[in-house]
Amino acid sequence: MSDQDAVTISKIRMGIDAADACLRKMIDCSSISNAPPKIDNELCSAIFVSDDCIQKFKKCEQFVDESLRLESYVKKQSKTKAMLLLVKYGNKDEFERRVKSAIEQLSNRNGNLTDYSEKLTKTIQSASYICEKCDGTGTVEEQVIIRESGSPPSVILRTSCCNVCEGIGQTIMNPDLKRKLKVFSENLNRIVCIISNNIAFINNAVSTSFLEIERGSSSSL
What we know:
Strand order of the largest sheet: 1-4
Number of strands: 4
Largest sheet: 2 strands, antiparallel
Number of helices: 5
Order of helices and strands: HHHHEEEEH
Shape: elongated
Distance between the termini: 19 Å
Strand content: 5-15%
Oligomer: single chain
């Protein structure tokens, strides 16, 4: 590969390393946040999707590396090396299809991650979360047993104001939790931005590479 190709791969790998570092910080925050169950579930889901995004990011980096090497082999007319690279894909067209599919999957998954990021940002801005006891209704129902002389006990449902949120349906976030969620959110946003920027860069790199391959390839590929 050329020096420029090496720079391209290096830039993508730097993005992967930066995203990995952000994910580690997210994991650290989630393990010490003492978040309510619903928020904790959201954090776990965001971590899962972030990790999946990064794995797809790494797969795209592999495809960029292979497309640049294939371009180099075609330009040098190294047919044997080109065929060895393509053997696991069957042919050049199938290789190109898989590359484009991998980029599309990364883009779609990053869209899922963006949704988590926006939802968490709104939670932090509101400085509150849905009350776990009343599920946001502000009221709770409890069974009350009524006993009257000469009659069998009867059970009724009594609605009362939730004593956790005092009827507002929301629980105010404590400062420590808010601070940790903010760190989590900042790193989640960084992953989204890193991958978004690299998707455009990867698309440009493989598009240019495939144009060069098409120009120089023989019918045997």
